[in-house]
Write a structure and sequence with these properties.
This protein is 43% helix and 16% strand. By secondary structure, the chain is of the alpha/beta class. The chain has a single domain (5-117, 167-237), classed as Alpha/Beta hydrolase fold, catalytic domain (Rossmann fold). A 7-stranded mixed beta sheet has the order 1-3-2-4-5-6-7, with helices on both faces. Helix 3 links the parallel strand 4 (80-85) and strand 5. The longest helix has 17 residues, at 221-237.
Length: 238
């Protein structure tokens, strides 16, 4: 499917993939505002989010990667930088492995490479947090306004202990573009994953950001933006 998209600025294209239950307009705000003065910034609503209406999540990650490919072809964009966090980071990683020829660079955060020994415990914590969300009338009202699709389907999908696409995240096979992983020091699994990826790939850069955890681009937006800009500038000079 063709994803709802918006663009701002001129120059080399950079695409941002939002985290779960966000949209292209609500996520990566600091980064987009800075970069749109230098590049063409493209934001997308992943399927089932925002204005990308879909209730088909049976094969979400693979389908979302295909959606991105179809959308870029529709926009006649042959090469671009890709930035993603959490859910968007997982889609970005799978896209990079399936369609590496599109990418100039790849920047990811909020990704875990392998299933941890305490995954069942961590998953239980996530389920409890999501159940609390479903009882918060104010948050429900906001999310209903943000999303044309039934966003609760992502909550229900997340109850499956095997929802995370570990079959895709364990390696970086096929990716040719330079990769930047930005991780918060508070999320040990993601820090360890970034280190693993750096061992697997010759062109992986890792930035561990202090006083941050899973959503580093929101928790430390200035640091994240500065490092991202440095990464993009280095690539441009190569």
């Amino acid at each position: 499917m063709i994803l709802y998209n918006e663009a701002a600025g001129e120059g080399e294209p950079i695409v941002f993939l939002h985290s779960g239950l966000q949209t292209g307009n609500t996520d990566f705000v600091k980064q987009r505002e800075t970069i749109k003065n230098l590049m063409k910034v493209i934001t997308l609503d992943l399927r089932g989010h925002g204005k990308s209406l879909s209730n088909n999540l049976n094969n979400f990650f693979e389908d979302a990667a295909d959606d991105l490919k179809e959308t870029m072809e529709e926009l006649e964009i042959e090469k671009f930088h890709l930035v993603g966090s959490s859910l968007g980071g997982l889609v970005g990683l799978i896209f990079a492995k399936k369609y590496p020829y599109f990418l100039i660079s790849l920047t990811l955060s909020g990704i875990t490479a392998d299933r941890q020994d305490n995954w069942k415990e961590l998953h239980g914590e996530d389920i409890r947090a999501q159940e609390n969300l479903l009882h918060d009338t104010e948050i429900i009202k906001v999310l209903n306004q943000m999303h044309d699709s039934d966003w609760k389907q992502f909550i229900y999908k997340g109850r499956d202990e095997d929802w995370y696409p570990f079959e895709h995240t364990g390696d970086l096979e096929g990716i040719k573009a330079p990769i930047l992983f930005m991780v918060g020091e508070g999320n040990k699994a993601e820090v360890e994953s970034a280190s693993k990826y750096q061992r697997l790939h010759d062109n992986v850069h890792v930035c561990v950001i202090p006083f941050a955890s899973h959503l580093v681009h929101e928790q430390k937006p200035d640091v994240y933006t500065e490092v991202l800009m440095e990464f993009l500038n280095v690539i441009k000079e190569q």
